[in-house]
Design goal:
The chain is of the alpha+beta class. It is built from 10 helices and 24 strands. It has 2 domains: 157 residues, FAD/NAD(P)-binding domain, CATH 3.50.50.60; 206 residues, D-Amino Acid Oxidase, Chain A, domain 2 (2-Layer Sandwich), CATH 3.30.9.10.
Length: 511
């Protein structure tokens, strides 16, 4: 019996790599009385990591009849990078230097919306802009790249929103992912036996077993469904030297699987072909303190060491509370259509299950937008307005220069740095806040008048060393272990396709 072992200890300096050992075969115990020979058992799949990729694959594999068990080391799902990021559903505008990532993002956007549109919402105005100085691309080239990839965009005059030091900007129709609703949704998709929380995988062992198959019940033989196939039917047991690999988790016989899929961002099973590093990150959360917080504007400054301001919304319940708070005012929430056509009507429009009043006299025609509507709004005078967190209008602020807390070849050292910042906000975070604000103030001079620091969160990213800033999805197999590496949620369809291809190819070889 040969085995492949993956082991992870508390003193891990890098994620475990695959090592092979040899064990003596154990005896085979066949209990014909308790085993149904007429029904082929379902394949069991262990998934490590309960983030977007682990949960999505778990749902899809369950639908196809696989027995799925998801192992999550934390007390809840989506506690890694899936639950702590900027929650942007990409269409490719973030990656002007990686064609593969743009195409995967664009196709993945539609696939994602087919399954999970209820876990997203629109952005009133979603701007991408190119800085005048220190940008790796000029605006003309940037727009040509997006047009060539057929990514929807519409040039927009950023001065209408009080932005400056930008060569050009465009509107897009990327959406916001809710940051809490996906956690609630996926919890409901699995039973307690299928989703094992507080269960870290410290060791995964691949064992090869010799099986014995009767020709009467081979998959391609139809005699199993024949009336002649009865208890009195005599058949000859044919010994076939078929060797079926199994995965044993944490040395437990009751945790034996046909496959093990690692969805841990390369923190458990290393993808050998990738040259990666680990990047602890911090994102700041800001509260909109304007008396009129609408329309909600997202802005991403490309292409260099710049910044991004993006809505931070827990779910439809939060949107409903906010909509109800402003329902009787003249403020309301502006919702633009997919292709940027906005009417001047003051009537209400529906979004989901509640009504949102449209903002008055705001259109996408640059010549008709009054810049003073946005840039000269009064600061709030009522200290209770927009103070409650359940109705606060929140945004995440990230910075290419300051969000990364370092780059490490060792996961352990990267995690130590992340925890150092997370546990010392008075010193570590306090000195980062001014740096983030300086970064965005050069483009948004009124930022500190309109926004107030609220909180922060940290996360860990795994990235490949790549000059094009590629975030394409890769899926690799080693025996019965499958490792998924991807940085963006809209590559779920790529991972799903490749995983099913691996599982189906193995079935074909066994026939």
């Amino acid at each position: 019996m040969s085995t492949t072992i993956l082991e992870q200890s508390s003193t891990l300096t890098t994620p475990p790599v695959i090592k092979t050992t040899t064990l003596l075969p154990s005896s085979t115990n066949v209990d014909a009385a308790s085993t149904s020979l007429t029904k082929k058992p379902q394949e069991r799949v262990a998934i490590i990591g309960a983030g977007w990729y682990g949960c999505h694959l778990g749902v899809q594999l369950k639908k196809l009849g696989y027995q799925v068990v998801i192992f999550e080391k934390n007390s809840d799902i989506f506690m890694g990078a899936s639950g702590f990021n900027q929650f942007r559903l990409h269409k490719g505008l973030h990656y002007p230097r990686s064609y593969v990532t743009r195409v995967q993002s664009l196709k993945g956007f539609d696939h994602f919306m087919e399954k999970y549109s209820h876990l997203t919402t629109q952005v009133d105005y979603n701007l991408y802009a190119i800085a005048k100085r220190n940008s790796w691309l000029d605006f003309g080239t940037y727009k040509q790249v997006m047009d060539a990839t057929k990514i929807y965009n519409k040039p927009f005059n950023h001065e209408h929103f009080g932005l400056t030091n930008l060569e050009g900007s465009m509107l897009c129709d990327e959406r916001v992912l809710y940051h809490a609703a996906p956690r609630k949704f996926f919890r409901e998709q699995f039973t307690e036996q299928e989703l094992l929380l507080n269960n870290p995988v410290k060791k995964a062992e691949q064992v090869t077993i010799t099986s014995f198959v009767s020709p009467q019940f081979e998959e391609d033989d139809n005699t199993s469904s024949s009336p002649e196939c009865s208890d009195s039917y005599e058949y000859e047991l044919k010994e076939e030297q078929n060797r079926f690999a199994k995965i044993k988790i944490n040395d437990r016989d009751d945790l034996t699987f046909d496959w093990c899929i690692s969805c841990t961002y390369n923190t458990f099973l290393v993808t050998p072909s990738l040259n990666i590093y680990y990047e602890p990150c911090i994102s700041l959360i800001y509260k909109d303190i304007r008396s009129d917080p609408f329309p909600r504007v997202a802005m991403t400054i490309c292409d260099g060491h710049f910044c991004s301001l993006f809505p931070y919304i827990s779910g439809p319940e939060e949107e409903k509370r906010i909509a109800q708070k402003y329902a009787n005012s003249d403020l309301g929430v502006l919702k633009h259509h997919t292709h940027g056509s906005i009417t001047n009507s003051t009537s209400s429009t529906t979004d989901g299950q509640y009504i949102i009043p449209k903002t008055k006299n705001v259109v996408l025609n640059d010549d008709n937008v009054d810049a003073t509507d946005f840039t000269k709004r009064p600061l709030r005078t009522n200290t209770t307005a927009n103070d409650d967190d359940d109705v606060a209008i929140l945004y995440t602020l990230t910075s290419v220069a300051h969000t990364p807390l370092g780059q490490y070849n060792s996961w352990k050292k990267a995690e130590e740095r992340r925890l150092q910042v997370e546990k010392n906000p008075e010193t570590e975070v306090a000195k980062l806040i001014p740096l983030f604000e300086q970064n965005i103030l050069q483009f948004y001079p009124a930022f500190k008048q309109h926004f107030q620091y609220h909180s922060f969160f940290t996360s860990m990213k795994t990235k490949p060393y790549d000059a094009t800033d590629s975030r394409e999805c890769t899926v690799e197999r080693e025996g019965r272990f499958v490792s998924i590496m991807s940085g963006k949620v809209n590559s779920l369809h790529v991972a799903e396709k490749e995983v099913l291809k691996i599982l189906n190819e193995n079935k074909s070889r066994r026939r």
